[in-house]
Amino acid sequence: MNARKLLAKALASPAGLRFDEATRLAKAFGFSEIRSRGRHHIFSRQDIPELVNLQEVHGMAKAYQVRQLLRLVERYNLELEDGA
Question: Which end of the chain has fewer CB atoms < 10 Å from its terminal CB, N or C?
Fold first, then answer.
């Protein structure tokens, strides 16, 4: 699924996003994974002071964390990177 479809899916239902889809979406907006410990995967972007924490629970991403990612995208007017 391409990044635009993932974004539409996340906006429609944050609770229905699989963990791998959430990580692909974060990377499509320019975030890179800086560390992971257990189920916590931390993403950052050089020009944004906040971090994005995504957790995998039974293959799914936590809905509130997907919403936090979407709020950051909106707050900083992030666009999908080329090729996403």
Answer: N
